[in-house]
Design a protein that fits this description.
single chain; alpha+beta; Aminopeptidase; Alpha-Beta Plaits; 2 domains; nine-stranded mixed sheet; four-stranded antiparallel sheet; 11 helices; 21 strands; about 35% helix
Length: about 400
């Protein structure tokens, strides 16, 4: 089936960008070399400084106005011709791999294999490639553009960098485009919200025979898990609740003095996430109360505390919004069929604040993300870069240099 013709405005921008899209193709080898170099700089969540310094060095070489904010985000600004609210392009610096992981990249045929080679060395290299093309000389944007390498996107980083940037310097952004991993078809415009908890049940502990009757933290944790598993979780909007881990105890013949339980709660609906958050806390208190109600007279009760391990806000940039429409059109213009999707990315932060945002793949193909066998193939890699450039120029306004 032929792809539908996109609206004229996006098509005009696509055509006007023809020489700049060719520049991306011509720079393919250099972009890939930058991707490998960045991937080989260890960057665990919370320890992104070394990679951030290299990104800042490259940004300065591209003539961007560079600074590092209070949490470690590296921000490079390209001035616009007409001022106004900035358009933000983000790619995250951190990886899921702990310190000491061998992050060297090796080649296997057409594949590059290395931890983080796609997620998110590809996004960073693509962001820098866009900053090079949008040079303020051959190609201008009407709005200023902030290229932001963020910290703390992965796992317990809890979107720390994006949350800080969009709550402060980026609070007046006109739009945001996140470049995250490979791909050139998916358009993520829905932000999956999540809450993560560590629950600690604490008691006196004792011998399983002689101290029997003391409240058991593991019994309370197991009871809470059973009650949580019985909660009605709707299929739409898609929502998940996972008791991910329960730990505790010293020996088979000892009543534990403590137990921990970790819970992951996600939803496409922020109101539903808020409601389930309340229900989870009620269940934890109820399970603690039940175990305390069974304890022997005169014994000390269990205590319980809930620690937040993460709070990623959810939301949506409507599919009809001009930013999403431009991403859909640009995907078709580069010869791909767009796939609208939902995920948890840096885009969650601006979307939750009412700033239109999308997350896009940065070209090429990849797999085995978040494993040491992660791979990237530069198959038509410039296609994803061209798409991102078109979306950026639609959002920031295209103004080519005269002559």
């Amino acid at each position: 089936m032929p792809l539908a013709a996109p609206p004229a405005p996006t098509s005009r921008i696509y055509d006007a960008l023809a020489p700049h899209r060719e520049r991306l193709v011509a720079s393919d080898h250099d972009i890939l070399r930058t991707q490998v170099a960045l991937s080989e700089i260890p960057s665990p969540t919370g320890s992104e400084e070394a990679r951030g310094r290299e990104v800042a060095r490259i940004m300065r070489g591209l003539g961007l106005q560079v600074r590092v904010d209070a949490v470690g985000n590296v921000i490079g600004r390209r001035a616009g011709t007409n001022g106004g609210a900035p358009v933000v392009v983000c790619a995250h610096l951190d990886t899921v791999f702990p310190a000491g992981t061998d992050v060297s990249v090796r080649k296997d045929g057409n594949r590059l294999i290395g931890p983080g080679i796609g997620d998110n060395a590809r996004g960073l290299a693509a962001m820098l490639a866009l900053a090079k093309v949008l040079d303020g000389d051959n190609l201008h944007a009407e709005h200023p553009v902030d290229f932001v390498a963020t910290v703390g996107e992965e796992a317990l980083g809890d979107l720390r960098g994006a949350k800080h940037f969009f709550a402060n310097d980026g609070r007046d952004a006109a739009a945001a485009i996140m470049l995250d991993g490979p791909g050139d078809e998916r358009v993520v415009h829905r932000a999956v919200g999540s809450r993560r908890y560590r629950v600690l049940f604490a008691g006196p502990g004792g011998h399983s025979w002689s101290a029997y009757g003391l409240p058991n933290p593991l019994h309370a944790a197991g009871n809470a898990a059973a009650m949580l598993s019985a909660l009605a979780i709707p299929a739409e909007p898609r929502t998940t609740l996972t008791v991910a881990r329960i730990e505790g105890g010293l020996s088979i013949n000892a009543i534990p003095s403590g137990a921990t339980m970790e819970i992951d709660l996600r939803s496409m609906s922020q109101p539903l996430l808020d409601r389930l958050d309340r229900e989870v806390r009620v269940i934890i208190d109820a399970a603690t109360a039940q175990e305390n109600g069974r304890r022997a007279h005169g014994t000390a009760p269990l205590g319980v505390s809930v620690e937040s391990l993460g709070d990623r806000p959810g939301g949506e940039t409507p599919a009809a919004h001009p930013l999403v429409a431009a991403a859909i059109d640009a995907t078709r213009l580069v010869g791909r069929e767009p796939e609208l999707g939902a995920a948890s990315t840096d885009a969650n932060a601006p979307i939750a604040l009412g700033i239109p945002a999308v997350a896009l793949g940065a070209g090429g193909r990849g797999g085995d993300a978040h494993t040491v066998q992660e791979w990237f193939e530069n198959t038509s890699g410039s296609v994803g870069l061209a798409r991102a450039l078109v979306v950026l120029c639609c959002a920031a306004g295209l103004q080519e240099a005269a002559g």
